[in-house]
Design a protein that fits this description.
Layout: E1 14-19, E2 23-24, E3 30-31, E4 34-40, H1 43-48, H2 55-59, H3 61-69, E5 72-77, H4 81-95, E6 110-115, E7 122-126, H5 127-130, E8 135-142, H6 145-158, H7 170-175, H8 185-199, H9 203-219, H10 223-237, H11 242-250, H12 256-259, E9 276-285, E10 288-298, E11 301-302, E12 308-311, H13 320-332, E13 342-346, H14 349-360, E14 370-376, E15 382-386, H15 389-423
Parallel strand pairs: 9-13, 13-14
Antiparallel strand pairs: 1-4, 1-5, 2-3, 6-7, 6-8, 9-10, 10-11, 10-12, 14-15
Helix pairs in contact: 6-11, 9-10, 13-14
């Protein structure tokens, strides 16, 4: 495996390209053969991570094949991680590299959408909802919802804008400079235009426009507006993306490193965030009207549109573990559903063993799914979480959120089934 340029890659943020042998077009001309595009806080460190001895464990078989197929590495430096995130999305959309395959479906990707209104809003919209509304502009897809939300926060501090929550929190947003002066529609539309340019990767054009506008306002003695634009120029030239630096580090390893980590492994060694957590619970009354549910937390937030209900078909009596096995087996047969990175079960060792054994019986060998169990006290309040200690410490909040949602959803579904059957 001979790959050029590894030692020359700088310790700076940007986008990197794994290139294969040049492709010949129909006219016989050689063209770039981009196999994979990625972003990084440190291009040097990220590229080095592809050449460790544990490549298949940390990157998986698909990217292992990509590395062996590549013969060159190229890169493009950006001024910030924020710009690297946007550039990566734009280039992947443009070139559609072979190995930029993701575990999520397009419907679970995130897009930045700008509405068609007199005062346009800037929204983050899931792929499954993009087609349900008409937008002026759509940017993406972005595979990490948490990174995109942090990116939007940074951009909003530079170019304040309206979103769907602005109506309810308008005065508060004004106080913290997240909403501009809505009485000046021209200035607001300038912000929207600059946001569009930023998501198109045209920061230089924005700076050029802003400097021109600042001189114009100063010439007309509108010094307050000129001062606001001067602030925007400074913010663009000194983007503060510390939160994105942290998140990009956490995204550098794949889920298998968490699954195989030793219970006493340090948190510093576990660097990838779970993007999808599924929680399961069973509800019944003395074995009657037994139901199961699945709830989902994606990128730290509940995804209610992904929740599922299951009527228990194979179990009689109060067999919670048998019902859990049935629910998991039925759920995992749906290979078209986005698979989880972590499964949370309600119960103890027995429920955790059922989940782990069900996963082991799968014919697929490319899934890397960890399991934890939430143990409750006599008041049905969480008292412990069983499983990998590193996962539990790092994702405790999301685990408890998913488990709480599963319990609530299961009880609600059980009561509905019980009332329905009572009337029959």
């Amino acid at each position: 495996m001979k790959i050029k340029l590894i030692k020359k890659i700088p310790d700076k943020p940007g986008v990197y390209f794994f290139l294969g042998p040049p492709k010949r077009s129909e006219g016989g001309k050689k063209g770039k053969n981009i196999l994979y595009i990625g972003k990084a806080t440190s291009l040097r460190d990220r590229v080095k991570s592809y050449f460790g001895k544990d490549l298949i464990q940390t990157r998986g078989p698909i990217l292992l094949d990509m590395v062996w197929s590549a013969d060159r590495i190229d890169y493009q430096i950006t001024d910030s991680v924020l710009e690297a995130i946007i550039l990566e999305a734009n280039l992947i959309k443009k070139y559609q590299p072979k190995y930029n395959t993701k575990e999520k479906s397009d419907k679970s990707f995130n897009y930045v959408c700008i509405t068609k209104e007199s005062l346009p809003k800037v929204l983050i919209v899931r792929g499954s909802n993009v087609k349900h509304r008409v937008f002026n502009k759509i940017y993406g897809p972005y595979t990490s919802g948490s990174q995109l939300r942090e990116a939007i926060k940074i951009i909003r501090k530079i170019f304040p804008f309206l979103d769907d929550k602005s109506k309810n929190y308008l005065e508060f947003y004004r106080q913290i400079n997240l909403v501009p002066d809505l009485g000046d529609r021209k200035l607001y539309l300038q912000n929207i235009r600059n946001i569009k340019l930023f998501f198109s990767g045209k920061k230089k054009q924005i700076l050029k426009n802003l400097k021109k506008e600042m001189r114009s306002y100063a010439k007309m003695h509108e010094f307050e507006k000129a001062g606001e634009i001067k602030r925007q120029i400074f913010a663009l030239q000194h983007i503060n993306d510390v939160a994105l630096l942290k998140q990009d580090t956490e995204a550098s390893l794949n889920f298998s490193s968490l699954r195989t980590a030793k219970p006493n492994a340090s948190l510093g060694k576990i660097q990838r965030s779970f993007s999808r957590i599924e929680a399961y619970d069973i509800a019944h009354m003395g074995g009657k009207n037994m139901v199961g549910v699945m709830t989902v937390v994606e990128d730290g937030e509940v995804a209610k549109h992904e929740y599922k209900k299951f009527k228990i078909r194979t179990q009689g009596g109060a067999n919670d573990t048998g019902a859990l096995r049935e629910v998991l087996e039925r759920r995992l047969k749906h290979t078209e559903w986005t698979h989880p990175n972590l499964i949370v079960v309600d119960g103890g060792v027995a429920q955790m063993n059922v989940a782990q054994n069900t996963l082991k019986a799968l014919p697929r060998t490319d899934l890397s799914i960890s399991v934890v169990a939430v143990v409750k006290n006599e008041k049905h309040k969480p008292k412990a979480i069983l499983g990998n200690e590193v996962i539990v410490r790092k994702y405790k909040q999301q685990i408890l959120l998913a488990n709480s949602e599963a319990h609530r959803f299961a009880i609600t579904y059980h009561k509905k089934m019980r009332n329905k059957n009572f009337l029959i």
